[in-house]
Amino acid sequence: EKKPINVAVTGAAGAIGYALLMRIASGDMLGPNQPVNLQLIETEPGMKPLSGVTMELADCAFPLLRSVQSTTDLEAGFGDAGLAILVGARPRSKGMERGDLLTANASIFAAQGAALNAAAARDVSVLVVGNPANTNALVASANAPDLSPAQFMAMTRLDQSRAAAAVAAKTGAHVRDVERVVIWGNHSATQYPDLTHATVRGQPALKAIGDDAWVKKTFIPDVQKRGAAIIDARGASSAASAASAAVDHMRDLVVGAGDAWLSMGIPSDGSYGVEEGLWYSVPVTCAGKGVYQRVGGLPKPDDFSASMMDATRKELLSERDGVRHLLPK
Ligand code: NAX
To answer: Catalytic site residues (predicted)?
Structure first.
């Protein structure tokens, strides 16, 4: 039998955690032959609801679930973790300014970066889901000097899937037939969902859609604001779809995804005028075993794309300015 993989999840008692843990434990994320140990991290007030979730995990009698540990201690929770999914974050409360939220969350991710640095497996892959995800990934990595920045990723997979689903609906194709949709930049309303390289059934998506006004006036803003539309309809933010995107991201990273283009927020290498040190979403391919590679050699973006990519870059810069005091010199 395969050796179990240790998967750490923060915010495990939250809405995303509830959906995510079931998918990991059932084998959806790492496959039907891969046992897992769950290492669940919560706040003190989160421990009681978490005990209910772990009762349910036991009651599911998942054949692949080898052990479940629940803790408030970061180093214990991240100990020897091969995969870490950082979901727990402070939600925006009434009257809270965006800057306050940024700082409150950044201090959480500074502590988690330091604990990962101290305790996780040296080849750990860290996926940041909690918002503001890109800047939280930056802060966590900055506090983990012994791990490579490339090991920290911010999740934009949900945005990618939302964009692909919108294109499928528009063209009457199945979502599986929509490829190479790209999310650039921040996981926020400034993100740029880009169809320049996308294909539908192997044909250029922009040609299949044939409606530039729809792309610019409907598709892009709808994808950017999809999270708000779900809150408006459901009275709660997307949870199952966010969990599903995290499962997809980690599965592709660990198992590999051939030549598929997948978007993730990773440390910039300076391309597209994005300064190094920002976590900016770009297309990558995944070879498996935690290895990903940026898609290179793309033609220079046209003026519209360049201005969209620049706007989201500027937002990430200003977020970094807001957390500078938490970045070690
Ligand atoms: P919930 O409020 O339901 O759950 C969050 C959980 O995290 C709570 O149980 C809380 O006790 C715990 N928590 C808070 N601080 C913690 C800490 N320091 N250590 C460990 N646990 C901690 O939120 P949920 O709906 O699950 O959303 C979680 C995060 O995901 C939010 O920041 C949200 O904005 C973000 N999202 C990110 C998405 C993405 O695509 N990157 C999409 C969905 C979601 O909006």
So the answer is: 187
Stretch (H or E) spanning 80: none
User: What is the DSSP secondary structure assignment for residue 151, as one 8-state letter?
Assistant: G
Which residue's CA is the closest to the ligand 1 atom numbered 30?
A: 130
* Separation of alpha carbons 25 and 10, rounded Å: 15
* Residues of the chain falling short of pLDDT 70: none
CATH of domain 5-154: 3.40.50.720
Q: Cis before residue 132, ω within 30 degrees of 0?
A: yes
17 carries a ligand binding annotation: yes
Question: Which one-letter amino acid corresponds to residue 13?
Answer: A
Q: Is the CB of 322 under 6 A from ligand 1?
A: no
Alpha carbon distance 142, 146 (integer Å): 10
ipTM > 0.90 for the complex = yes
- Domain spans of the chain, in order of start: 5-154, 157-320
**Distance in Å, CA 14 to ligand 1 centroid:** 6
State the DSSP string of 175-237: GGGEE--EEEB-SSTT-EEE-TT-EETTEEHHHHH--HHIIIIIIHHHHHTHHHHHHHHHSS-
